[in-house]
Design brief:
heterodimer, A: 286 residues, alpha/beta, Rossmann fold, eight-stranded mixed β-sheet, 11 helices, globular, B: 374 residues, 2 domains, six-stranded mixed β-sheet, 13 helices, 16 strands
Chain lengths: 286, 374
Amino acid sequence: MMKTIVMPGNPSCQGCPHAIGLKALGLALEDFVLVIPAGCSTIIAGIHPKATLNVPVLHVPFASAPAVAAGISAAFKRENKKKNVVIWMGDGGADIGFATISGSAVRNDDIIVIVSDNEAYMNTGIQASGTTFWKAKTTTSPAGKREDRKDLAAIMLMHRVPYVATASVGYMNDFIKKLEKVKSIKGFRFIHLHSPCPPGWRFDSSKTVEIARMAVKCGAWILWEFDGKFNLSPASKPYKDKNKRKDLKDYLKMQGRFKGLSENEILEIEKAIDKQWKYIECFENI
Amino acid sequence: MKTIMTGNQAVAEAVKLSRTEVIAAYPITPQTVIVEKLAEMVDSGELDAEFIRVESEHSALASVYGSAVAGKRSFTATSSHGLLYMYEMVWWVANARVPLVMAVVTRTIGPPWNIHTDHTDILTMRDSGWIISMAENVQEAFDLTLQGFKISEELNLPFTAGMDAFQLSHTSEVVEILDQETADSFLPERRQCYVFGEENTTIGSLAPNECTAKLRKDTFETMLKADKTIDKVSKEYEEITGRNCGLIEEYRIDDAEYAVVMMGAWSGDAKDAIDELRKEGIPIGLLKLRYIRPIPQKRIEKVLEGREILVLDRDCSMGLGGIIGTELKSFMDDITNVIAGIGGVDVGVNELTKLFRKFSEDKLKDEVIFLEVI
């Protein structure tokens, strides 16, 4: 049953990818509750006595979400409730709560974890995270991020849980299909959602979907799914062939966070993307 | 039924008898045996519950927060560094007004690493809104844990059952355990003012400042009235078991000129020391605190009125005093405060007899005395 879960008048920024992603949950999932740790979505969900999400929402401390969800899931199990317990967190929650996600995956808790990754701690004002894009300028990496970027979904894949996928707010049908698949799978399910952030990445708020699609087309964000078998998702398939990828420079120049990158730095990013694809090729052979 | 068991085992038995439905825990010495025992009970089918084997203490309290907010009787246990690691959740659970029970086996905070008892760890919970109890012996650890569920669910406040590392957690004593039928007659099914997931309710969202202030005031006032609930529940329990587990215990204090105030396992040794001194004709008695939150100010004042007061703390607020001493000084005058037994330093009957004798000879002059050894 389709349901509008994001109500009009919610306080998300113009062009907010979370608001787009949350909409997909309502379209794909039927009976579910949301667990939201601290982040942008804490605010999007509204200020008491108003609430903008038309589902039960439990707000929880930053690093705690999968553990709280495990408790809720255990309580539901006691009553044979079929509700899905869904966590909606950002890359910040995934950084600080990494041990919590890992512990939950190891236990194979019956929950769905969605990390809506806008590649920095946006709610506190654009600080670099573990998944911040290579060389991106943030308020704590003003000269551009020097460190490598952690591949969260791949790490979750190594936990050997029933379901891991990546998704993008630029490919809603793909995301919804994945959600529809996970809703009937039992155990720990993880979706890493790519969520371009207009104020954080410095692009016009009308361009969220365009940038999300560009990330996939230049091969920087790769859509895949593991449901017992690893598969590149259709939208990413063509870009396995490097020659078919769109020009990385076009993706970078659309965003203020990459302003002033040298040719050398762009080359480094390209190499990092190529390396990312090599891992994908290995996963395809598992 | 009378049996012999350690404090850890007794707490596990009380959790079983309370028909707890969800347990989450992470091991830390000396609490570990509680959750090992519960894991065994769940695996063998002796206890029909979910056991969540979490990866940290933060997650232990987070998980039982989840199960409790979703309506299930829930339990966890921790100690010292584990308690500090879950400190964020300690406050979250209290501010959310969710009933649940946690055992805290008091243990020294490092460095240096130390697994022995002092009370500073449990007292870090003092301002958070938890009901905080502290057992003197294994029987009380059992009794307080079982009563904790009822008190917590009546007040919508989380409950801590405290007991000293090793002195209670690992010491076998004779304990009377209730049978299931009696436990059921004492402890009704869980009640809770709201349950997550039943309606489209948002819990814990952003709120205007005035809402937060109103909620805190409500918790404050609930804590002020909590003594009445504890009186009621401990009376109901006494009717069934014959054992009183009220807020305070008075020991040989009616005619005492000198009164000692303390909490925890060493209160038992203090009673022996008082017996010794009484034989010598020294008019000394004990006021044992079974709860530090709520703290029954008026009752304490009434019992101590007109007596010389020594507060003995196994905990410390740096540069100020013992924590219980500091608390009592906030509403009473002329208190001598001794800090001892920090880091698990042995303080037994002999040491306490020596200390109390000095006190009765008016030889403890300083306001706060910090003793490494007595």
